[in-house]
Amino acid sequence: MINKFKQNKKNNGRSLTINTKHGKITTPFFMPDATRGFIKTLSGTDLNNIGLGAMVVNAYHLYLQPGLEIIKIIGGIHKFMGWPGPLLADSGGFQIFSLIHSHPKMGKITDEGAEFKSIWGGSLQKMTPEKSMQIQFDLGVDMMVCLDDCPPNNFSKKELKIAVGRTIAWAKRCRVEYGKQIKARGITNNLPLLFGVIQGGPYLDLRKYCLNKLVKIGFDGYGFGGSPIDAKGNLQEAVLKSIARLIPENSLRFALGIGTPADICQCASFGWDMFDCVIPTREGRHGRLFQKISNPPAGRAGFQPACRTGRFPTRLPDGQVSKSFYSTININNSNFKNDFTPINPNSNLPELKSYSRAYLHHLFKLNEALGRRLAVLNNLEFYMNLMEDIRHIYKTKILKN
């Protein structure tokens, strides 16, 4: 249930507080992908130091390696990772179907589920909606995602209709299995939140149809599935905006895979509550650092004023993000060889204030792990500050489980 609240008059953005077994999270929030139970190069202490609220783990990957028996021995994925905060489990449908669509010999998709060869040894595996739910309950996560048929961008509308129908049918089966698992495990408090996934590609009519069917089944939240980027590489803004408005007010809105700062700001203004993406961690490992522009050009809104007034940054015609919002640097570039300014002088992390960009450039040139760690820390701190800024726009309300 969600307490009554008023949408922001300037846009549809909102802020809620979700209660979970492993703590509260205030929306909008961003979850980095700890796909296999970790964020590369970072420890739990690092994550706590940047104020991380929640992460995403992947049911498919953890099922294959290290396997559920190992995780169940210790009492669930939280204890295995040493992470005390909320976790969301992605069903793994995206990874499974990407594998099959890219390499048809690796498996097949039927109405029953998906059959595929494991990337660890090639053994034949099967994933059904029921099995996906069982895995996520074994992991012990706070938020779960239904298995869905996730098609590639190049699917025709006819093919997308089939995927939508299969997604709806699987969502019904996930909902039934969820109820069975709750009863069998004797869970009475802090029930995990369950998300249905909205498919339909770039076609608003298919997205609406899928959402309407999912709402009739009933879920705690609804995710925007498939690629949020169209065939031309642009964010599907019109579809994302329309679908967000159609999701019931008392349900969470999860924009899966949306992760550039500008896209997050834009989608938050549409009313999306949750985001996840590999962008900040992956880009960091390759030497690309996000940085806030502290002194924007005269007459142009800076980072904090832009978020606090709702004037979110927009994409320029060439697809680049407005320089008045933030910028990125590639620490591998030779011009940083003699740059002895701090990585981020305004950081709350001592390492980012004490180490220079010249030193970070040196670490990357030698492929030293410390360099990747510092860059990923920089990017995740940037994202946490971004989300905190966005949350200032909206009044916090309580979403009770």
TrEMBL record:
InterPro entries: ArchSynthase1/Queuine_TRR, TGT, TGT-like_sf, tRNA_ribo_trans-like
GO biological process: tRNA wobble guanine modification
Protein name per its UniProtKB record: tRNA guanosine(34) transglycosylase Tgt
Pfam families hit by this protein: TGT
Primary gene name: tgt
Entry GO terms, CC: cytoplasm
SUPFAM superfamilies per UniProt: tRNA-guanine transglycosylase (SSF51713)
Domain of life: Bacteria
Record's keyword annotation contains Transferase: yes
